Write a sequence for this structure.
C-alpha cells in the first residue's frame, strides 16, 4: 500500500480534538468525534491492506493478527502497566475495583462492554476512569475479528459475483448499523455509544473508501479536490466545536465528521492546499504519535484530576497535554516503532508474547477486582449502606413481624440511613419497613422529568413505585402496627437539580409548569396529609448540607473540610412553610449533623478525630446515619411505643 502522509495528518486532526476535549477546553466541546474520524481512517487502511493481499493471494489471518498485535499491544500494555501502581496508591477501594475490572476488560478486548454497563462516557465520574478511552480499541478489535473472515468468504466467490455480493452486503450492514445507531442514540444512548453494532457503520465508511479507490485514481480536477477536501476538514472542525455531550452520538448527525473524513481521504490529493497542510512535517509527526498520544492522555488526565486538581484548564491543561505528547513520543520511538519492525521479533514470538500479555492483564484485573471487592465490602459496611442505583430495597432483616413498626420511605438518602435506623429500632423491639427506590422521592403526584432520549424511564417507574408503596403503608396502618412514617429524600437536589435538557428534575403530574420551589412543598404537604388520613404521623427529615467535591478532598488527604449550610437552611425553611398548620414531626438534620455553627458544617466529628459524616458529599455515611437514627429513636421512645 502506497504511503499517504496526509492520512497521518488526518490522524493528527482526529487526536488533537479528543485530547483537548478531555482536557476540558470548552471550544472543543465535541472533540470526542475525533474517535469517529479514527474509525473511518482505520476502516480505510485495514480494508485496503486486506483487499490488496487477497487480490495477490497472500493474505493470512495469522499475518493479519500479527500486524494488529505489533501495532496495538506493546504501547497499550506499557500504558496499562505504568498506570497500575499510581492507581494502586491513589484510588479508593471502589475506584480500584472499577479500575481492576477495566484492566481485565483491556485484556479481553471488552472495554466497550464494561463501560457500557457502567454508563456513561459523559458522566462526571467517567473522566476519572484512567482506561475509559480503551473502549474504542475494543470496538476496533471486535470488528477486526469479524471483518477479515467476511472478506475471505466473499473472495471465494467468482470475481464478478464477488463485487456485487460484497458491496450489496456491506451496504445493507451499513444501513442497518447506522439505523440502529441513530435509534440507540435517542433511546439507548450508552449502548449506542459504546457497542460495535452501532459503531460498525463508521468503520464501513472507511471500507467503502478503500473499495472505491482500489485500482482506481480519483479523476476530479484540482479545484474539485481543493473544495471537497476543504469542506471535509471544515465538517470535522465544525463537529469538534459545535457538538457537545447532548448531541446524539452515533446518529445521523455523526455523518458530519465521518463524511468529512471520507472527503479528506478521497480528495486531499497532491496539489490541494489541504494535502499540503496535512502533509506538513509537524502535522504528520503528530499523526505518527497519535496512537500513543491517545493511549497516554486519558490515564494522565484522569489521575491528575483524581489526586491533584479539579480541572485541567489553562496552564494546567496545557502542561498535561505537553506531558502526554512527551510520553507519546517516547513510547512511539522506543516501543511502537521497534515492535512494528518485523525483524524485531518473529511472528511466533510476537503472537505468543501478545497472548501472554493479554492473559496477564486479564488475570491481574480479575484477581485484584476480587480482592478489592472484599476491601470495598468492609469499607461500605463502615461508611455507607446504599445498594445499586435504581434498585427497590426492603430491609426485611429489620422487619420480622414485630407488633410495632416504623416505616422508612424515600430514595437513596433514606437507604443510606436504613441499616443504622433498623438496628437501633430493633434493639427496642420495633421493626423497620424500608420502602425505597433510588432517585425517586417519597412525594406523591410527582414525576421524574428525564428526556426519553437518554433512555431513562424514571417518570413511570417512580409514579408506580410510590403508588405501590402507599398501598403497603395503608396495609400496615389498617393492621394497627405502624404509627410513624419517616420520610427522607434528596430535597436539595430535587429543588435545584436539572436534567440534561436543563429542565427541573421533578414535575407535577397534573401541573407540569409548577417550579420546584412550588411543587415540592405543596406535594410534600399533600403526601403528609394523606398519611395522616391513615392515622400515621409523618417524621420528615429536613435537608442537610451537601458537598459535591467531598470525595476529591478526602482522597487528597484534606482533614479540615467544612460544608456551607445556607442552601440546606433555605430548603428547610421552604419545606417548613409548606407544612405550616400541619400535624407532623420534623428532624433538623442540619442541626443534628452540624451543631450550633450557623454558617458551615464540619465533615469530621470531634475536630477530625472520628470518621466523616458523609460518604460521597451527599449521602450520609454510617456514622452520620447513626446520628439521625438516634433522633428517630428518641421520637419513637417518647411516644411510648416501647
Amino acid at each position: 500500500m502506497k504511503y499517504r502522509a496526509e492520512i497521518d495528518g488526518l490522524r493528527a486532526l482526529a487526536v488533537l480534538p479528543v485530547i483537548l476535549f478531555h482536557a476540558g477546553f470548552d471550544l472543543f466541546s465535541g472533540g470526542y468525534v475525533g474517535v469517529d474520524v479514527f474509525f473511518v481512517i482505520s476502516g480505510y487502511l485495514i480494508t485496503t491492506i486486506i483487499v490488496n493481499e487477497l487480490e495477490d493471494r497472500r493474505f493470512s489471518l495469522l499475518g493479519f493478527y500479527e500486524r494488529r498485535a505489533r501495532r496495538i499491544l506493546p504501547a497499550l500494555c506499557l500504558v496499562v502497566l505504568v498506570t497500575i501502581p499510581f492507581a494502586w496508591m491513589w484510588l479508593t477501594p471502589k475506584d480500584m475495583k472499577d479500575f481492576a475490572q477495566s484492566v481485565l476488560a483491556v485484556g479481553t478486548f471488552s472495554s466497550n462492554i464494561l463501560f457500557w454497563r457502567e454508563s456513561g462516557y459523559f458522566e462526571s465520574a467517567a473522566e476519572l476512569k484512567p482506561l475509559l478511552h480503551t473502549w474504542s480499541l475494543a470496538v476496533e478489535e471486535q470488528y477486526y475479528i469479524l471483518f477479515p473472515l467476511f472478506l475471505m468468504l466473499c473472495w471465494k466467490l467468482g470475481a464478478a459475483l464477488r463485487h456485487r455480493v460484497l458491496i450489496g452486503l456491506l451496504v445493507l450492514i451499513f444501513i442497518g448499523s447506522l439505523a440502529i445507531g441513530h435509534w440507540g442514540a435517542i433511546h439507548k444512548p450508552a449502548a449506542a455509544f459504546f457497542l460495535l453494532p452501532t459503531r460498525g457503520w463508521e468503520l464501513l465508511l472507511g471500507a467503502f473508501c478503500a473499495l472505491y479507490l482500489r485500482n482506481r485514481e480519483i479523476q476530479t480536477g484540482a479545484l474539485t479536490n481543493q473544495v471537497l477536501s476543504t469542506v471535509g476538514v471544515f465538517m470535522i472542525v465544525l463537529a469538534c466545536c459545535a457538538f457537545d455531550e447532548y448531541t446524539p452520538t452515533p446518529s445521523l448527525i455523526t455523518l458530519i465528521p465521518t463524511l468529512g473524513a471520507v472527503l479528506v481521504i478521497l480528495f486531499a490529493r497532491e496539489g490541494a492546499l489541504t494535502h499540503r497542510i496535512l502533509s506538513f512535517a509537524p502535522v504528520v509527526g503528530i499523526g505518527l504519535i497519535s496512537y500513543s498520544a491517545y493511549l497516554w492522555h486519558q490515564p494522565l488526565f484522569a489521575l491528575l484530576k483524581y489526586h491533584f486538581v479539579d480541572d485541567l484548564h489553562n496552564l494546567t491543561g496545557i502542561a498535561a497535554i505537553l506531558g502526554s505528547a512527551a510520553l507519546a513520543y517516547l513510547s512511539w520511538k522506543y516501543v511502537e516503532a521497534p515492535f512494528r519492525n518485523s525483524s524485531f521479533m518473529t511472528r511466533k514470538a510476537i503472537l505468543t508474547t501478545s497472548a501472554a500479555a493479554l492473559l496477564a492483564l486479564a488475570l491481574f484485573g480479575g484477581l485484584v477486582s476480587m480482592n478489592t471487592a472484599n476491601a470495598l465490602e468492609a469499607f461500605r459496611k463502615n461508611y455507607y449502606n446504599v445498594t445499586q442505583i435504581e434498585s427497590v430495597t426492603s430491609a426485611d432483616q429489620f422487619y420480622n413481624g414485630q407488633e410495632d413498626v416504623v416505616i422508612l420511605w424515600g430514595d437513596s438518602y433514606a437507604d443510606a440511613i436504613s441499616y443504622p435506623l433498623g438496628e437501633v429500632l430493633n434493639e427496642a423491639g420495633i421493626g423497620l419497613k424500608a420502602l425505597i427506590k433510588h432517585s425517586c422521592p417519597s412525594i406523591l403526584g410527582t414525576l421524574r422529568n428525564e428526556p426519553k432520549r437518554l433512555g431513562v424511564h424514571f417518570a413511570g417507574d417512580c409514579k408506580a413505585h410510590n403508588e405501590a408503596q402507599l398501598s403497603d403503608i395503608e396495609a400496615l396502618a389498617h393492621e394497627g402496627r405502624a404509627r410513624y412514617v419517616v420520610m427522607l429524600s434528596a430535597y436539595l437536589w430535587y429543588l435545584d437539580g436539572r436534567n440534561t435538557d436543563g429542565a427541573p428534575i421533578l414535575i407535577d403530574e397534573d401541573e407540569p409548569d409548577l417550579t420546584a420551589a412550588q411543587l415540592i412543598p405543596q406535594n410534600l404537604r399533600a403526601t403528609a396529609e394523606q398519611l395522616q388520613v391513615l392515622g400515621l404521623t409523618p417524621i420528615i427529615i429536613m435537608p442537610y448540607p451537601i458537598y459535591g467535591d467531598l470525595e476529591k478532598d478526602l482522597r487528597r488527604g484534606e482533614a479540615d473540610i467544612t460544608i456551607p449550610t445556607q442552601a440546606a437552611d433555605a430548603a428547610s425553611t421552604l419545606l417548613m412553610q409548606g407544612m405550616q398548620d400541619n400535624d407532623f414531626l420534623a428532624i433538623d438534620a442540619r442541626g443534628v449533623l452540624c451543631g450550633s455553627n450557623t454558617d458551615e458544617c464540619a465533615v469530621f466529628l470531634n475536630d477530625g478525630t472520628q470518621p466523616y459524616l458523609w460518604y460521597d458529599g451527599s449521602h450520609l455515611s454510617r456514622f452520620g446515619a447513626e446520628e439521625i437514627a438516634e433522633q428517630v429513636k428518641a421520637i419513637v421512645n417518647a411516644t411510648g411505643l416501647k
Notes: Residues 5-377 form one domain. Confidence is low (pLDDT under 50) at residues 382-394, 452-459.
